[in-house]
Amino acid sequence: MTRTHAAAAARRTRLDAALDRQTTRAFLDATAKPADYLTALLGPRPTTGSAVTAWDEAAHRVEHYRHHTLGLPYGTPATADNSDPVRRALGDRPADPTAAHVYDQACQPDFDVNPPLPL
Fold first, then answer.
1. Per-domain residue ranges for the chain?
2. Could you report the per-residue pLDDT of 24-57, keeping only the tens digit for each?
3. H or E stretch including 17?
4. What are the tens digits of pLDDT across the range 82-116?
5. CA-to-CA distance for 107 and 103, rounded, in angstroms?
6. 52-57-83-81 Cα dihedral, nearest 10 degrees
7. Following DSSP, what letter does each residue of 69-114 receive, concatenated?
């Protein structure tokens, strides 16, 4: 590896670490006071049970995408469009298939945000 490649790799490592710290901070903020785009996408944060873990994991995926891909700080909507919660949280779906796959993973809550009410 050349000196230039080593320097670039070291810089990339530092950038990834900084983005990971920002993502963690955003996630902690989300668990205390979820941003509007998160509650629009995921519903209110549950207070008990396994739904808390599922909501937290989904919120972390959203914030990871927002920080690592979009470069957005916590609380800033990706778009002013209030009619579509996915676009408000994550912006427009990329045309590139690889980027679109990452986007799709970020917007999947992996839990039922509107569970059926028991009869």
1. 21-106
2. 887 887 888 999 999 999 999 999 888 999 999 9
3. helix 3-32
4. 899 999 999 999 999 999 999 999 988 665 555 44
5. 6
6. 130
7. II-PPTT--S-S--S-HHHHHH-SPPSSHHHHHHHHHHT--SS-SS
Place of tokens 């996408």: 41
C-beta atoms surrounding 106 within 10 Å: 22
Burial of 73 (0-12, 13-18, 19+ CB in 10 A): exposed
Tell me the CA distances in angstroms from 94 to 61, 110, 112, one per residue in order: 17, 21, 25
C-alpha angle 44-45-48 in degrees, rounded to nearest 5: 130
What value does the mean pLDDT take over residues 65-71?
A: 91
- Whether the per-residue pLDDT at 118 is higher than 80: the answer is no
CB atoms within 10 A of CB 60: 17
Amino acid in position 111: F
Q: Whole-model pTM above 0.70?
A: yes
